[in-house]
Design goal:
This protein is 48% helix and 13% strand. It contains twelve helices and eleven strands. The strands form two sheets. Strands 3-2-1-4-6-5 form a six-stranded mixed sheet, with helices on both faces. Helix 2 packs across helix 7 and helix 5 crosses helix 8. The longest helix has 36 residues. The chain is globular, with a radius of gyration of 21 Å. The mean pLDDT is 89.
């Protein structure tokens, strides 16, 4: 079986880690399942059955058989959703999915989540953000390796197109399932895919790959770096690019900021979605999970001397050593 080519940095990263594959049995995740197997990368799978289609139970049963065949553990969550009446189906489904991944990672010690996001997905996001008037920091969407609160998220197919994936599956006669909900153009992403991105990708795949890489390099240069970061806690220097890094930190912590929320974070200290504290002093922004807890006077005084904003202190009192912070 001829494998799809995975970036060597990603392969080196995955080997020796405890990996969890987000598996739907669609074309992308099925191709990734076989590719990882063939390359000797060990992993288990997580499957969410939303009960939105008659076919979903068949997909679940097939996933069980496939994992059993290759000795892969499979974690399953059933989450019934009303596709017709939910105006925010995609976001709700994503939230359920990632809460499930977090739960498994914490309970069973997985330190890596592998997803099958591929080049077409990246280009779809690019076009969606372009239509919204986004800047470079938000146009490119996902990266190949991202730190999250409970795991590192890895996307081995980040530079592989849908055409390559389908060719791999066809040549090797591998069974997968088509999710018919992906054809419903009432969802914006499906509309972009149907009307624009797939057609453009079919003609200009090679050029898109190169452009995405150039833009990714430009993005890194523009964004700069965190003054401090340790998976959950971030410090950002106040400058004209600070909001881009605040946005990135919040995304790592599981929240995508709206333009309105970005502006609020810049103007005043706030708690985003009841989960993330964003606060500042005269030089820096601080981003961390929002925690309310009792703190002794000695700790509060230490925070005051270090000019740590009140919204951040609860997190630091439980999770960090202030002596390590050079602010």
């Amino acid at each position: 079986m001829k494998n799809l080519i995975i970036d060597s940095e990603i392969l080196d990263f995955l080997r020796g880690r405890k990996n969890l594959l987000a598996f739907s049995h669609g074309s992308d995740s099925t191709a990734l399942f076989y590719t990882l197997l063939n390359l000797g990368v060990k992993f288990d799978c997580a499957f969410v059955n939303y009960k939105t289609r008659k076919q979903s139970d068949e997909e679940e049963n097939s996933a069980k058989e496939l994992c059993e065949k290759f000795g892969v553990n499979l974690f399953i969550k059933t989450a019934s959703l009303d596709l017709q009446n939910s105006s925010n189906f995609e976001n709700i489904a994503r939230q359920i999915r990632y809460e499930f991944f977090d739960e498994i990672a914490v309970k069973f010690g997985f330190n890596t989540l592998i997803t099958a996001h591929q080049l077409n997905d990246k280009f779809e996001w690019f076009l969606m953000q372009l239509g919204r008037g986004a800047g470079l920091a938000n146009l490119l969407g996902f990266e190949k390796i991202e730190n999250r609160t409970n795991f590192t998220l890895v996307r081995p197919f980040f530079n592989i197109s849908k055409t390559q994936i389908l060719k791999f599956l066809s040549e090797n006669k591998i069974q997968f399932f088509n999710d018919i909900s992906n054809e419903n153009i009432k969802f914006k992403r499906n509309f972009i895919r149907s009307e624009f991105s797939d057609k453009f990708m079919a003609r200009y795949e090679s050029g898109i790959k190169k452009s995405m890489q150039f833009l990714q390099n430009d993005k890194k240069a523009i964004l700069g770096e965190f003054v401090y970061s340790d998976d959950e806690f971030f410090i950002v220097k106040k400058d004209k690019f600070a909001l881009n890094l605040i946005d990135k930190a919040c995304k790592i912590l599981g929240i995508v900021l709206s333009q309105k929320t970005r502006q609020e974070c810049e103007k005043s200290d706030c708690v985003v979605s009841h989960k993330i504290a964003v606060a500042s002093n005269e030089k820096y922004y601080f981003i961390a999970p929002y925690i309310k807890t009792k703190m002794d006077k000695k700790f509060k005084e230490k925070c005051r001397k270090n000019k740590i904003p009140p919204l951040i202190r609860g997190y630091l009192s439980i999770n960090s050593n202030l002596n390590k912070l050079k602010v």
